[in-house]
TrEMBL record:
It holds the Pfam family FUSC_2. Keywords: Cell membrane, Membrane, Transmembrane, Transmembrane helix. Belongs to the YccS/YhfK family. InterPro entries: Memb_transporter_dom (IPR049453), YccS_N (IPR032692). GO terms for cellular component: plasma membrane. This is Uncharacterized membrane protein YccC. Residues 404-527 form the Integral membrane bound transporter domain. The keyword Cytoplasm does not apply. It is found in: Cell membrane. The chain crosses the membrane at residues 12-31, 37-54, 66-85, 91-110, 117-134, 140-165, 447-472, 484-504. Signal peptide: none annotated. The keyword tRNA-binding does not apply.
Amino acid sequence: MTGRLTRAFRVLLSSYVTTGFSAGFGLMLIAGTAWLLQGQFVASVMAVGAIICIPPDHAAPRRGKLGSLLPAALVGLPLFAGVQLLQDQPLYLGMLLVPATFFAFLAGAWGSRGLPVVISIMFAMTFSMAVPRHLSQGNLLTTCIYFTSGSLLYVLYATLANALLNNRYRQQLLAQSLLALGSLMRSQADRFDPTTDTPPIGELMQKQAQLAEQLQAARDLLLESPRTPRRQQLAAIMINVLEIRDHLLASELDLDLVRSHPEAAPVLVEMHALLDQMADELERHADDLLFFRRSAPLNDWRPALAALNRMPQRLPAQEAQGPSLTTLLRGLTNRVGLINDEILRVNRLARGKVEPDLKAVRTAWKLFVSPTSWSLRPLRMLWHWDAPPLRHALRAALAIGTGYLISLALPWATHGYWILVTIVVVLRGSLSQTLERRNSRVAGTLLGCALAGAILSTQAPPLVLLVVVPLAQAISHSFAVRRYLITAVAATVVSLVQAHLISAADGPMFNMLERIADTVIGVTIVWGFSYVLPSWECNQIPSLVHRALQAQARHAQIALSLGQFNAVDDEPELEWRLARKEAYDSLSALVMATRRSLVEPRAVRPALEPLEQLLSHGYQLLAQLTTVKTMLLMRRDEDQSDIQPVLRSATEEISNSLRDGRSGGASPEFVRIEWGNQEEFSDPFVYDLKPWILRRLNMAQELAANMARDASAALKPSGEQRLP
């Protein structure tokens, strides 16, 4: 298959497309059955009840799946009924919409779990406006029963479908993690080649953040109940993916120093090619999972890496106390070799040639799975004026109120709720996400109207249209997060065809023109209210910087502790993995906030240069400590008494520097540590590791001091830019 065709199949076989079409099938099953038994109106109302429960329906662990869907159905019913009851009383309806919007958007306090619930609750109100009471074949109670039946049937269906697709979701999310890791590896490989343009460090950090998000989604599924051999196998591969990420990050060490020597260019070019081949192997494993193929044996690239270690022993300009270029290159090839080793282990696990480490994938790993309960703590913490969810809820309520008033004043107010739907799906907590959705919504509406017009012009019977709606809903749900333009096109088709089904008296052409006009009005309102009670990123970045520094200090303290090598159980190792995860997650959150700030007004942008330096030094510090831990593991069977004072000194120095950064003060110059007699650097991982451990520790201290200075520079202007 060609590269483009392969990428297309990867999308079609992804977890989000599977979830989308599962949702579409459930909607078609509910609406189609209702149409056959009760007729068109009942089917349309039950379809509305099902649609409002679709936004929270994603690939998820079986535990907690029902709890993630129920809030949409339970909260949606009274709001649907309230809108139906007040539909002929515009004033009272507006008095319901505005405060209900405020409380609905407060669900954003739960982050990525709460946002789909916000959408569901708002859909319950806005879509209720699409069900005119005069078309009902019964009273209000009857209409609400139809709505409730659709919601509950979909909740039950989605819970069952998620359980049935659980094993497939595990394979898909692991495959998506492998593909994300392969993409990061290619960008990292480009930095090796001095003959090509080096990708910006921001691109690497963005891919690191995307990989961290993908890995958490995969953890939630793969580490839940790994009881069967297949689940244990997939969970073990997941653990190896985390190790590959660490070794890939460590491959950056000494790279700039090596690149500065023209003599190293041929070796780096070959190393670039080898890393690209390893990325190919990761992608082949991902494709094997997606296409239900058995993995084939892989090549061991260690001999090819060993062949690269042919350089002069020492260059004329070599510093007396530093490692030679030959030694640096050997260390670099060895770190790339560790990536190769982990990929080979992934291959052997996939082929069943080695058994997974059950201690690593069972009970203790539940700590890495996201919580599924709805704690009240996020809600209790948002009641202060600077809380972004509170400000966003107020902003949304004002925008909805304005949109509703405008819809009442329009001469064509047949589908005034379309303005409100546009506001709901476009308005986001950050300006960058709102602007991105604004542009996609307008373009998607134009394309969707053309497509819906073509469908309705065929004068297809209602049963055919009841198939079109679930299909378009499936596509809309599939790409809601990945490609919103496609979602906007499909959602427009859903709304126009659904409106035609509910009220066939309306002309399709007028509906399309009205839809375009309402979308333009809606996105204009959203754009204007994006600057009302804004939550600029410069106000959030100080807490993210403090979190990153604290996480780095915690990780250094645990990574440089010898307790994990002497313990009789896995608790210290587990503690280190938790600290490592928090260090990655804290940096990823800061990366995303920094990128979102790029489209904000210049007057409120944070100081970008020190933030980028802080992030770069943070990832480098993680790499240094990972390498130190690897070398300490290699010394595990040796006497460690001589290294304990050195590790304690380095830990204290790193902690002090990062603490100074959190307090806002500039970190003093760090004190380089010494360890006995300074011996010449030998071939890494072959002879005495003392000089290498000492070198890495001193570099880690320097990076911690740099992070403190970066933090001080980054936080200083953000304090001046803080807005009321």
